[in-house]
Design goal:
The complex is a heterodimer of chains A (319) and B (369). Chain A has 319 residues and is an all-alpha fold. Chain A has 2 domains: 57-106, no CATH class; 109-312, Orthogonal Bundle (MetI-like fold). Chain A is built from 15 helices and 2 strands. Chain A has helices at 7-38, 59-65, 77-82, 85-92, 110-141, 147-156, 162-176, 182-206, 210-218, 223-234, 236-252, 255-260, 268-276, 283-303, 305-308, and strands at residues 68-70, 95-97. The longest helix of chain A is centred in the N-terminal third of the chain and has 32 residues, at 7-38. Chain B has 369 residues and is of the alpha+beta class. Chain B is built from 9 helices and 20 strands. In chain B, the strands form 4 sheets. A 6-stranded mixed beta sheet of chain B has the order 6-7-8-3-9-10, sandwiched between helices. Chain B has a 5-stranded antiparallel beta sheet with strand order 13-12-11-14-20. In chain B, strand 9 (203-208) and strand 10 form a beta hairpin. The longest helix of chain B has 18 residues, at 166-183. The radius of gyration of chain B is 25 Å and the shape is elongated. The chains are: A mainly alpha (319), B alpha+beta (369). Chains A and B meet through helix 9 and helix 10 of A and strand 6, helix 2 and helix 4 of B.
Chain lengths: 319, 369
């Protein structure tokens, strides 16, 4: 390991490190832009050159969650004094929070869309991963006729570009009343992720030695018990990795969500850009929406990071 | 009290027949070793008894009851895998407790049983560890503990120490034997290592290409091999084999190794015995283990002059290759008995240790002199 580096090798190494740093910064730039804009005052959001140093504000997030309307004149001093801190932030931006006749704050479309995204992504991930794990176990442990063909068929469901099937799917969904429903999107995303889940999980389950289950079988357990007590814990790493990928796909999906949903079940991805088009866009609000949209995937991946690193099961079987 | 009986077992993997008409009766408390090369069907036989493999034909009886259609989990048999197969996500304690939890015994009982087994195997200090933190020998102890804890009807072991290094293997061999004497459960043990088989078994079952070759105590298998395969598979260095012709001359039987100038002297009764067994010259093979080849450094009555070709000093003894005609005959002598290769020495075959086989069929004529 401790080979001596020559001068030229060291120089090359530095160039490589510099290149990696530059590429990393390039990739991080949009994330930085979104994050910083989400906390900017509105007037600094579109300056040229971009404002880098500013006092961060929370007002974009308040605006993101509330329904607002333009103020013609400055608010009444009494109204301003009576308003809670977050409502004053909206007043400061020359807008007011829309309230119902009974004085309740009207929410914007965003929180609802965000919840829809969570419901659809989590449910379809759970379904795709659990069905995928069972299917993969079957493929991995039992001999069957046409196994390779079946696996290829499962993979082939992934081969058509979504755009090709979008219109027929829309018509089918409308015919059975699944358009603009949570279940509609959940079924779609589950079907879409299932092939991926089966293939990935098969790889992980193939790596779990059969002897583990056989030991459980002779020790008095049924195959199903062996599956739950031995295979599942051993496959935890694979399940976590598969779940992360399925979740990301379902969370980020745009095309089908745009076509299949419009109000009740609409998810965040088609909603956020739709806000750009309405009048003069408030980029800080759009950035705040995008920033919040980034968080679940980041948190989910962070929580599962230990499972994503392999190594738990090393050294327990001798070959 | 567990007897296991195999009746007419047949098993195919596709077109390959891996077990051919296997019949075997195993007594209670017996330690049986299935011995053979890899691919001889010994592991498949073991897995079939455990219920991990189905059989095509025949009956497997445990205490007189056919079990071939009963699931592995209901056969009440423990299995120790070569890979140990300890669950990595469980501690040693949980691993050993795992079979007990299948029958949902209560917590205090499980705790007590696991502690008792751990004490027997001297692994109490390891109970909280995970398998990945254990040495090979300790993993194996835990695997045996997991098998023992349930007090199964029988213990099946598939090359349980095959993955360990030589020194540890020797230690564990002794430990398994000690444990068997103490616990006394019917045990079937699979190995390809004849030393392991000899040292552990009450009876050895030698298998070759799916066919049972011989069943007997280690002594029987060693001293009276049923055929040439068993004769050469058991014992190290392997038994010498040579095509011979037998003739009678002046009240002696003369056994001539093909191509050799001089014949070995045998008692005259040999010819009669061979004739009675139906042996014929031209289809006769002599087998003798190296310790059955007696070597003298001077000419003696009944000894034939030969040349010492290669000497392998093994510390406790030497193995010497003697040139007899075109054949090599390996002899076992005291350490340093023949100082240099190339020396002229005299050799004789101890008739009591000579075996005669049918060259084409391979079977022993069962001659004992």
């Amino acid at each position: 390991m401790a080979a001596v580096q020559t001068r030229s090798e060291r120089a090359l190494n530095r160039v490589a490190i510099a290149a990696v740093l530059i590429i990393t910064l390039l990739f991080l730039a949009p994330i930085y832009w979104i994050t910083s804009t989400a906390f900017k005052p509105r007037n600094l959001a579109t300056t040229i050159p971009p404002t880098v140093i500013f006092e961060p504000e929370i007002s974009p997030f308040v605006k993101l969650f509330t329904k607002r309307s333009q103020l013609r004149a400055a608010p009444e001093p009494d109204d301003y004094a009576a308003a809670p801190w977050w409502e004053r932030l909206v007043f400061d931006g020359g807008e007011k929070v829309v309230r119902s006749g009974r004085g309740d704050v009207q929410l914007s479309g965003y929180p609802n869309r965000f919840m829809n995204s969570l419901i659809v992504a989590i449910t379809s991930t759970v379904l795709a991963v659990s069905m995928g794990t069972f299917t993969a176990y079957g493929f991995s442990r039992f001999k069957m006729k046409g196994e390779a063909d079946l696996l290829f068929f499962i993979l082939s469901t992934r081969m058509l570009p979504p755009v090709v099937v979008a219109i027929p799917m829309f018509l089918m969904y409308r015919a059975v009343g699944l358009n603009d429903t949570h279940w509609g999107l959940i079924i779609l995303y589950t079907a879409f992720n299932l092939s991926f889940s089966v293939w990935l999980m098969k790889g992980f389950i193939d790596e779990i030695p059969k002897e583990y289950e056989e030991a459980a079988l002779v020790d008095g357990y049924t195959r199903l018990e062996a599956f739950f007590k031995i295979v599942l814990p051993e496959a935890a790493t694979g399940i976590a990795a598969t779940a992360v990928f399925c979740f990301i796909t379902a969370w980020n999906e745009y095309a089908f969500a745009l076509i299949m949903t419009n109000r009740r079940a609409q998810t965040a991805p088609p909603f956020i850009p739709s806000q750009v088009g309405s009048g003069l866009p408030d980029w800080t609000v759009i950035a705040a929406g995008t920033f919040l949209f980034l968080l679940p995937v980041a948190i989910f991946t962070f929580l599962l990071r230990n499972h994503l690193l392999r190594g738990m099961s090393f050294g327990a079987i001798r070959k | 009290m567990t007897q296991i009986e195999l009746r007419g077992i047949e098993k195919h993997f596709g077109a390959v027949q891996v077990i051919k008409n296997l019949n075997l009766a195993i007594a209670d408390n017996e330690f049986i070793v299935l011995l053979g090369q890899s691919g001889c069907g010994k592991t498949t036989t073991l897995r079939a008894i455990a219920g991990l493999e189905t059989i095509d034909e025949g009956d497997i009886l445990i205490d007189g009851r056919p079990v071939q259609h009963i699931k592995a989990s209901h056969r009440d048999i423990a299995f120790v895998f070569q890979s140990f197969s300890l669950y990595p996500h469980m501690t040693v304690f949980e691993n050993i407790a795992f079979p007990l939890r299948a029958t949902r015994g209560n917590r205090a009982d499980i705790e007590r049983e696991v502690q008792a087994v751990a004490k027997t195997l001297q692994i109490t200090h390891l109970l909280a560890k995970r398998p990945s933190a254990l040495s090979g020998g300790d993993m194996q102890r835990v695997a045996i503990g997991r098998a023992l804890v349930r007090r199964p009807k029988a213990m099946l072991m598939d090359e349980p120490i095959g993955a360990l290094d030589a020194k540890l293997r020797e230690e564990m061999r002794a430990e398994i034997k000690r444990l068997h004497i103490k616990q006394g459960s019917t045990t079937i043990y699979v190995t390809h290592d004849q030393v392991e088989a000899m040292s552990l078994a009450d009876r050895i079952v030698v298998m070759h290409e799916g066919v049972l070759q011989q069943v007997g105590t280690p002594h029987e298998v060693y001293a009276r091999p049923a055929n040439m395969f068993v004769a050469q598979f058991v014992g190290s260095p392997v038994m010498n084999m040579a095509e011979v012709t037998v003739s009678e001359d002046m009240g002696h039987a003369r056994v001539l190794v093909r191509g050799a100038p001089t014949a070995f002297d045998f008692p005259s009764s040999l010819t009669a015995q061979l004739a009675a067994a139906g042996a014929e010259n031209g289809n006769l093979t002599l087998g003798v283990r190296p310790e059955g080849v007696l070597v003298s450094r001077e000419a003696r009555e009944g000894f034939v002059p030969v040349e010492a070709h290669i000497i392998e000093p093994l510390g406790s003894h030497d193995i010497i290759d003697l040139q007899v005609g075109a054949q090599m005959l390996r002899a076992r002598t005291k350490s340093g008995f023949v100082p240099r290769p190339g020396e002229a020495v005299w050799a004789r075959i101890n008739p009591a240790q000579a075996h005669f086989f049918d060259s084409s069929a391979g079977t022993s004529f069962g001659i004992s002199l």
